[in-house]
Design goal:
The protein has about 270 residues and is an alpha/beta fold. Helix content is about 25%, strand content about 20%. A hairpin with a 5-residue loop joins strand 1 (about 85-90) and strand 2. Helix 1 (about 1-10) packs parallel to helix 4 (about 50-55). It is globular, with a radius of gyration of 20 Å.
């Protein structure tokens, strides 16, 4: 399904498409083991999903890869050194920022040393003994080596969505948009406002993943404009829309073009 979707996007007529997976493409810290610290986990994941990886890396898709918290260590490897934590799209209106979204977590407000210590103390099964902070990565791998995540997902319950409409229906200009509400809205606004001030930018949109909860939230700025947070959802776990009896698999993408943004919940395709 993934390959057919990406090929369809590549064939959109008269459109220069830029695709941006928003991080956590390779879930390294759940796949790595303390007994396999030298193994190339990313290479094995790529082999397991060969058709999807080849489609994503197709040059016609102009993919801009971003790093998330689960695959952050990829930056250490030469093959992924060009992957970024942030990506700005300066052309068109409005200007915006693409990133995974984990930097808005409350723990990120602490200094790096305190963050390392907290990760160490609260890693599964890790005991508080005297370890150098520089060895935290190996200790975390050991802590996660025996963990089983098959019964655990970031969202234990289906993520709630607004009412869904078919693409061919007449969709209002503001459909299911949250006003001045929602996780990370204020943090994303403050981040973009700081970038605007420090680097003479004009960021009005932030696009993230991380929460696995598809939504669009807006905030009116002091000068009467709108700041928009677009949370693109996920491709794991489940979601449930208003009025639906049961959950459906998450299958969400965000599409931005000119001055319009939409989030699509895709219907499963059969092979």
């Amino acid at each position: 399904m993934h390959q057919r979707l990406l090929r369809a996007l590549q064939n959109v007529a008269n459109v220069r498409l830029v695709a941006a997976p928003l991080g956590d493409l390779f879930d390294l810290w759940r796949e790595s083991s303390g007994l396999d610290t030298q193994g190339d986990i990313a290479a094995r994941i790529k082999l397991d999903h060969d058709s999807l990886i080849r489609a994503l890396f197709d040059s016609d898709l102009n993919t801009q890869f971003l790093l998330g918290n689960h695959d952050f260590d990829l930056y250490r490897r030469p093959n992924y050194s060009a992957w970024a934590r942030r990506y700005y799209f300066p052309r068109g209106a409005p200007q915006g920022l693409l990133l995974h979204g984990d930097i808005f977590d409350w723990i990120e407000r602490f200094p790096d040393g305190i963050q390392d210590l907290l990760v160490f103390l609260f890693s599964p099964h890790a005991k508080a003994t005297q370890y150098a902070l520089g060895k935290m990565r190996d200790k975390i791998r050991l802590a996660h080596a025996g963990a089983r995540y098959s019964a655990f997902l970031q969202n234990a319950k289906p993520a709630p969505l607004g009412a869904l409409r078919r693409v061919d229906e007449n969709i209002p200009s503001r459909w299911n948009v949250q006003q001045d509400a929602g996780l990370f809205l204020n943090a994303a606004y403050d981040c973009c406002r700081k970038a605007n001030r420090d680097y003479q930018m004009n960021l009005k949109v932030a696009v993230i993943g991380h929460t696995h909860h598809a939504r669009i939230a807006v905030k009116e700025t002091p000068d009467g404009q709108l700041f928009t947070l677009i949370d693109c959802g996920a491709w794991i776990e489940e979601c449930i829309a208003d009025g639906d009896e049961g959950p459906s698999p998450n299958a969400q993408i965000a599409a931005l073009g000119a001055n319009e943004a939409r989030i699509y919940q895709l219907s499963p395709l059969s092979d």
